[in-house]
Amino acid sequence: MALIIDGKKISTEIKEELREEVAALKEKGVEITLAVIQVGNDPASSIYVRNKKTACEYIGIKSLSYELPENTTEKELLDLIKELNANSKVNGILVQLPLPKHINEELVINTIDPSKDVDGFHPQSVGALSIGQKGFLSCTPAGIIQLLKRSGISIAGKECVVIGRSNIVGKPMALLMLREDATVTICHSKTKDLKEVAKRADILIVAIGKPKFISSEFVKEGAVVIDVGIHRDENNKLCGDVDYEDVLPKVSAITPVPGGVGPMTIAMLMYNCLQSAR
Q: Is the pTM higher than 0.85?
């Protein structure tokens, strides 16, 4: 019987731990503040931003909200970030992605002070991760490590295959698994014999943005499968990159969609906010 990894339950555990730590800091007179910037009103982004605010409220972190119109210029956004960089009361700055086409995302990420980069996207944060130094970790990959550890799944010495090489999930995920002593392979759109490579994995992490792409043919008997994708299927039901029903009988553990990786991203963002205050 496969273990269904409960991201909601684990993220709640983490938030409870953080809540206590934030309360202890408050007693010492330390208030944690996160600034959240959203440009435009993309519906998915609005939901994420709302969830982040709710999590802040629950844990005891103050959140400042900047909801800017779609036609905000790049200069206006950069000026706001610089202002928040200079504000000693703000511990973390988060710019909700994607941004409108006329704004250069890379420039925006690079403008955030690395000591306030709670998303873990700044080149300095990524560089620190790649050479094993301390720094903010990208929230989704960090959340996946917590999912595995808190579910009693050992990582050291395991063969891990990451499908997807994005800067937000695939690459940092591979680096974190390497840090945990896994043997790591990264696959992408140009990988030959993807099925054969995926079937080597003791731990298969899928972040490719294609609904139900991974079937049981890609999965080794007894593997652990982590599904980072989120989509709506033909019946408007939420689904991931993995064909859950097809893969379930073959695995030893799997994350559902929804309720798997998703809740962990926000929990780890809250963890990064606490680190920024420290």
A: yes
